[in-house]
Design a protein that fits this description.
heterodimer, A: 356 residues, alpha+beta, Uridine Diphospho-n-acetylenolpyruvylglucosamine Reductase, domain 3, Alpha-Beta Plaits, 3 domains, five-stranded antiparallel sheet, 12 helices, globular, B: alpha+beta, Uridine Diphospho-n-acetylenolpyruvylglucosamine Reductase, domain 2, 18 strands, binds flavin-adenine dinucleotide
Chain lengths: 356, 509
């Protein structure tokens, strides 16, 4: 089903028994039982005000269209939504609603935040077919509870997004990357921490294929100045680096095995990698200064057994009976999450099990 | 301001409740004497006062849990309190409530510079969080003007902002985790030193929930390395609307200063008298701060000066040294206090799209004339968060009411141009009855559903945020009605900026 308006979507959900499998561009390769319910009929830019740094757009609008529009005005989505198609071997075209529903965020997470930090407002249809709005289109808004953040990353389990409002930012004049050869995880983490603890406004700190990558952005003269001084401090040189490939974990794209995203405190990078390796062969790459670890491992492995802290999500790999994609939550947290789902979707008809 | 009638059953429990609370915490942590509970009768919205039944000052998460368990079992409402600086009445008691103050929970629990985090107990003041890390060159970014006094607990509950949020974001963008006690005494951990949530983003909805979902006792906060330098420039204009247009042009040009603050003549004069900052005497003043290396600062300031020049400024003046920079900020951050020395005022907090600044400033001037009350403006212009201060005389009968009516009209205007009722102070009791202007029934029901999950009995700060008629059934029933059935009514739809339903709501309010 492909409703052409928010009203029609509300009618479909309110009137049907479901269940529904909500779908944007289908690039995540995740599905569940139910009638396919596509958002691509809800497409188009509602409002773009470059002078207020705000964009309001319907959920089914292709991400590429949004990015083109912003680029024409010298602006961008600063949270760098990722493109998982190559890693997952999927096709289709990401929608902005899918980006928000998965809280997709790239390397700039450490500086400007995640998608949720740029999301100013949402409209959605809940599991009862009711249209709800929250937030708005201004930068600062504490009017009532922040359901905007709750909807970001809810993977369509609390409601189907129909329209989102986002903060956009100017595209910088220049970008530079500092590169340091460093095969050792502990020393790589130290180097990234040093860069992030410097006053040089680092906008990316990753460790891929034995190299530490540090990104600086801004006015050209300032980038040159900061790159020279930080480069000297770290003993790193400037080089061209494809940050989209870092963002989208291309290192594991054409390799067999499961891929996991592990989230830990950055200083735990080396210990975490060590523990994972002790449990079986893995290959790793890190982003967010070491706080996000991409792991490639054997297809049947429960990575969480070897994880001492943080949490892990399986992003690629066949379903295993006792190993859910998402990290199981502590009992009290799970009860709250279940309570919220029960309230927003009492009949349990929206993307049932997608976050399991 | 209407508040629910105190529950006689609860009032009668006072002695018994005090005794039970004293059994789980030191005697001096339970305050029952009316001459002492009076200290908690209001917060920063001091026009409204009501002493609580009791006040408690726990020192540990365990004590908070014990207090809540007891109050839960006895059906007693609890109002959490940080430092009591809320300007929305968020921490204002009801006569039948226990005030739970977290001021004694003020320790630093952990600092980790490699991970750039600090974990503190929630009663610690905002400025003293930075105080704990600044020797190492770090700081905690959100900087409400009240930062010397306000607590992290209140900052989290209100999702507070500050002058430098334009670059660094508000509390929610700098909060990584909390320890929170639910009304039934359950202690939960949400988030931590890592950056993202494993499941639903509960932290996102806890931040800004105004003490209605749980009592936060500990928080993990992001700390940042201080920039190499920072410098404010003052740009004076002889017209408010022109200053507003200049702000919009700066943002459009791709320069992103850390702060763009706005003051009009009445505020400029009051703040100058207070801080001797050397503010130019003009109609409208922008304080714009940029930071980075010396080269970066010079470059950005030259771009800003070029844009300002197109708007005919009466004066452009950079801070000449660190002392003057500090005075410029002292004056701005003392604006409310400085105005308060001259006049009674009511502080509004609506946000508007930056592009609407000239129009809204113009309308406020007209409305001020219509109502016959002066309005002074001081606000965070870079993100459109306005703080019109309506000046009135509290001793003149009827003037407070007139002031409230003008306030409601200005906030309604903010919503109509695509903005919101409150950008950083919160709803509390102050904007509670205006929520209809921004939200329709379904919008409010979705928010209340969250409280139903965290606090099914509606005992935590129950008379705030939601219009009393809307929350009445829940507050009274001490329970949650079953989820509503399928959609029946045709609620209006449209863009996020659509205000058709809001106007309808206003007529009903
Ligand atoms: C002069 C002045 C200037 C100000 N400037 C700014 C500004 O620039 N930016 C800004 O955003 N605000 C500003 N404020 C408003 C106020 O300081 C903030 O809202 C602040 O965060 C309140 O903190 P507090 O500790 O005083 O909280 P309180 O006033 O004690 O409480 C505020 C709310 O938090 C809840 N709460 C308190 N403790 C807890 C807890 N442990 N768990 C759960 N909920 C809790 C309360 O129930 C209440 O709803 C200003 C206020 C004043 C008086």
């Amino acid at each position: 089903m492909t409703p052409a308006s928010e009203d029609e979507l509300a009618e479909v959900i309110g009137g049907a028994q479901g269940p529904f499998a909500v779908r944007g561009g289908g690039t995540r390769g995740v599905s569940c039982d139910g009638i396919a319910l596509s958002t691509v009929g809800l497409s188009g830019i509602t409002l773009y005000e470059p002078g207020a740094l705000t964009l309001v757009v319907r959920a089914g609008t292709p991400l590429a269209e949004v990015e083109r529009l912003l680029a024409a005005e010298g602006q961008r989505l600063a949270f760098e939504p990722c493109d998982m198609r190559r890693l997952l071997g999927t096709c289709g075209a990401s929608t902005i609603g899918g980006v928000v529903a998965t809280n997709a965020s790239g390397p700039r997470r450490i500086q400007v935040g995640a998608c949720r930090d740029h999301l100013l407002g949402v409209r959605f249809v809940d599991g009862m077919g009711q249209v709800v709005k929250n937030g708005g289109r201004v930068m600062k808004n504490v009017t009532g509870y922040d359901l905007v953040k709750l909807m970001a990353g809810a993977h369509g389990t609390l409601g189907v997004l129909t329209e989102v409002s986002l903060k956009v930012l100017p595209r910088p004049e220049a970008v530079a990357t500092l590169v340091l050869d460093e095969p050792d995880a502990a020393r790589a983490a130290t180097a990234m921490a040093a860069a992030l603890g410097s006053p040089f406004d680092v906008t990316g700190a990753a460790w891929v294929a034995g190299r530490v990558l540090i990104r600086l952005e801004g006015f050209a003269a300032s980038v040159d100045d900061r790159a020279a001084r930080l480069g000297a401090a770290l003993g790193a040189d400037r080089a061209e680096v494809d940050w989209d490939a870092v963002r989208d974990a291309h290192v594991f794209a054409d390799r067999p095995g499961d891929v996991w995203r592990v989230s830990v405190r950055p200083s735990a990078l080396a210990a975490t990698v060590g523990a994972l390796q002790a449990g079986g062969a893995v290959e790793v790459a890190a982003d967010w200064g070491g706080g996000l670890i991409w792991v490639l491992c054997a297809a049947d492995r429960d990575l969480r057994r070897d994880l001492a802290q943080g949490h892990a999500t399986r992003v690629r790999g066949a379903a295993l009976p006792d190993v859910p994609r998402f990290q199981p939550e502590a009992a009290q947290i799970a009860a709250i999450s279940a309570g919220l789902r029960q309230r927003f979707d009492p009949r349990g008809i929206l993307n049932q099990g997608v976050m399991g | 301001m209407q508040m629910p009638i105190p529950d006689a059953r609860v009032l009668a429990l006072k002695a018994d409740l005090a005794a039970r609370l004293r059994s789980v915490m030191p005697a001096d942590a339970v305050i029952a004497d009316p001459s002492e509970t009076r200290a908690y009768e209001c917060d920063g919205l001091s026009a409204y006062r009501c002493p609580p039944l009791l006040a408690v000052l726990p020192s540990t998460t365990q004590e908070v849990s014990d207090v809540l368990r007891i109050c839960h079992a006895m059906g007693v409402p609890v109002v959490p309190r940080g430092s009591g600086t809320s300007l929305a009445g968020g921490a204002m008691p009801t006569a039948d409530c226990v005030i739970l103050g977290v001021a004694r929970l003020n320790a630093v629990l952990e600092v980790d510079y490699a991970d750039r985090i600090i974990r503190v107990q929630s009663g610690r003041t905002n400025l003293s969080v930075t105080g704990a890390v600044e020797a190492e060159g770090f700081f905690y970014a959100p900087d409400p003007s009240s930062q010397l006094a306000c607590a992290i607990a209140g900052n989290i509950a209100m999702n507070s902002g500050g002058a430098h949020c334009l670059k660094y974001g508000v509390t929610t963008n700098n909060l990584l985790g909390v320890t929170m006690v639910l009304m039934d005494g359950t202690v939960i951990e949400v988030g931590g030193a890592h950056l993202d949530a494993p499941g639903l983003d509960l932290l996102g909805v806890i931040c800004g929930s105004e003490g209605q979902l749980g009592v936060v006792t500990e928080a993990t906060l992001r700390i940042l390395r201080k920039p190499e330098g920072a410098r404010p420039v003052m740009i004076g204009f002889d017209d408010n609307a022109v200053a507003g247009a200049c702000v919009s042009d700066i943002i459009r040009a791709g320069v992103l200063p850390v702060a763009i603050e706005f003051m009009d003549r009445p505020c400029i004069r009051a703040c100058e008298a207070f801080a001797k900052a050397g503010y130019p005497d003009c109609e409208a003043l922008l304080i714009i701060e940029v930071e980075g290396s010396e080269a970066e600062i010079t470059h950005q300031l030259s771009l800003i000066a070029a844009i300002a020049a197109r708007h005919d400024p009466v004066e452009v003046r950079e801070a000449r040294d660190a002392d003057q920079a500090a005075r410029i900020w002292l004056g701005r951050k003392s604006a409310f206090g400085a105005m308060g020395q001259i006049n009674d005022y009511m502080c509004l907090d609506g946000t508007i799209p930056v592009t609407e600044l000239p129009h809204v400033l113009d309308r406020i001037r007209q409305m001020s004339a219509e109502y016959g009350l002066d309005v002074a403006n001081v606000f965070h212009a870079g993100d459109g968060n306005m703080h019109p201060l309506i000046l009135y005389n509290a001793n003149t009968p009827g003037e407070l009411e007139k002031c409230e009516a003008l306030g409601a009209a200005i906030l309604t205007l903010c919503v109509e141009v695509g903005g919101c009722l409150t950008g950083e102070h919160g709803v509390g009791i102050e904007k509670r009855d205006l929520m209809h202007v921004q939200f329709n029934t379904a919008d409010l029901a979705a928010q209340m559903a969250v409280k139903d999950v965290f606090d099914p009995g509606w005992l935590l700060n129950p008379a705030k945020v939601f219009p009393l008629d809307v929350s009445e059934e829940r507050r009274r029933g001490g329970g949650q009605p079953a989820p509503a059935g399928p959609r029946t009514s045709g609620e209006p739809t449209g863009a996020l900026r659509d205000t058709s339903d809001q106007k309808k709501g206003l007529a009903a309010a």
